[in-house]
């Protein structure tokens, strides 16, 4: 959202009948208010907050079928809107295809880790070999794969895409970079220094907003408002 407000949700597992929890912070990550997701959504592969009150999640419901859940009230109430699935980017984990606003696509790799959508036409796919492929035409074509060694988290934000990497020379922690919409190389924004024990894959989250970068390493949340130079 901005340098003060953010949402987060755990990935979940559709085979476990346990409600998801959407959390919201209004103090730069110092504290979080938890709201149980009251629909049958049980896992999340895509999440986006597009206004102060509206956010949506795409994932699998308790039958392990693709589903769409949204809140119009900052997380105090939820509804299921499966008809909205056709209008968003997401990876269908049931058959490995990509859904986009332009239709169902074959992904640029067989082992998709993440789908990062900017808008209907611009999106990127991160593969398990840490290569990123970008499209500017809704998935009709994909740019050459870009290798991002040590990539542990990706998101939209500053410049279109934000990537967090570990094990990079000159950064004893998490390096944050931004990437443009097509074949541009990443531009390094900054480094958040932390010990190596905190850098397990899957425990790093990154997100960019119009005026800040949010980073979570294990349970520690930090925010940069100067392009990744300093973190607080």
Describe the structure.
This protein has 232 residues and is an all-beta fold. 0% of the residues lie in helices and 46% in strands. The protein contains no helices and 21 strands. The chain has a four-stranded antiparallel sheet with strand order 4-5-6-7, with no helix packed on it. A hairpin with a 7-residue loop joins strand 2 and strand 3. The two termini are 17 Å apart.
SSE order: EEEEEEEEEEEEEEEEEEEEE
- Binned, the helix content reads under 10%
Helix-and-strand structural type: mainly beta
Question: What is the straight-line distance between the termini?
Answer: 17 Å
Q: What's the total count of β strands? A: 21
Mean pLDDT: 92
What general outline do the C-alpha atoms trace?
A: globular
Strand line-up of the largest beta sheet: 4-5-6-7
Number of helices: 0
Largest sheet: 4 strands, antiparallel
Strand content is over 45%
Q: Regions with pLDDT < 50 over 5+ consecutive residues?
A: none
Radius of gyration, in Å, reads 17 Å
Outline of this structure?
With 232 residues, this protein is an all-beta fold. The protein has strands spanning 6-9, 21-25, 33-36, 41-49, 55-61, 66-71, 79-80, 90-91, 98-100, 103-105, 112-117, 123-127, 131-135, 146-147, 151-157, 160-166, 173-179, 187-193, 204-208, 213-217, 220-224.
What secondary-structure arrangement, pairings included, does this model have?
Layout: E1 6-9, E2 21-25, E3 33-36, E4 41-49, E5 55-61, E6 66-71, E7 79-80, E8 90-91, E9 98-100, E10 103-105, E11 112-117, E12 123-127, E13 131-135, E14 146-147, E15 151-157, E16 160-166, E17 173-179, E18 187-193, E19 204-208, E20 213-217, E21 220-224
Antiparallel strand pairs: 1-2, 2-3, 4-5, 5-6, 6-7, 8-9, 9-10, 11-12, 12-13, 13-14, 15-16, 16-17, 17-18, 19-20, 20-21
């Amino acid at each position: 959202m901005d340098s003060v407000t953010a949402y987060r949700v755990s990935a979940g597992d559709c085979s476990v009948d346990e409600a998801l929890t959407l959390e919201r912070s209004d103090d730069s990550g110092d504290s979080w208010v938890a709201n149980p997701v009251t629909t049958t959504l049980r896992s999340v592969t895509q999440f986006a907050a597009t206004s102060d009150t509206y956010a949506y999640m795409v994932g699998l419901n308790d039958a392990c079928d693709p589903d769409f859940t949204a809140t119009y009230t900052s997380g105090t109430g939820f509804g299921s809107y499966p008809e909205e699935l056709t209008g968003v980017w997401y990876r269908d984990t049931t058959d490995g295809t990509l859904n986009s606003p332009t239709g169902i696509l074959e992904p640029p790799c067989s082992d998709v880790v993440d789908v990062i959508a900017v808008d209907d036409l611009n999106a990127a796919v991160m593969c398990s070999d840490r290569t990123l492929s970008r499209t500017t035409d809704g998935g009709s074509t994909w740019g050459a794969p870009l290798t991002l060694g040590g990539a542990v988290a990706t998101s939209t934000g500053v410049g279109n895409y934000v990537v967090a990497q570990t094990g990079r020379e000159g950064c004893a922690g998490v390096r944050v970079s931004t990437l443009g919409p097509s074949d541009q190389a990443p531009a390094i924004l900054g480094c958040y220094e932390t010990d190596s024990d905190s850098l397990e894959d899957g425990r790093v989250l990154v997100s960019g907003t119009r005026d800040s970068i949010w980073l979570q390493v294990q349970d520690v949340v930090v925010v940069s408002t100067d392009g990744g130079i300093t973190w607080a």
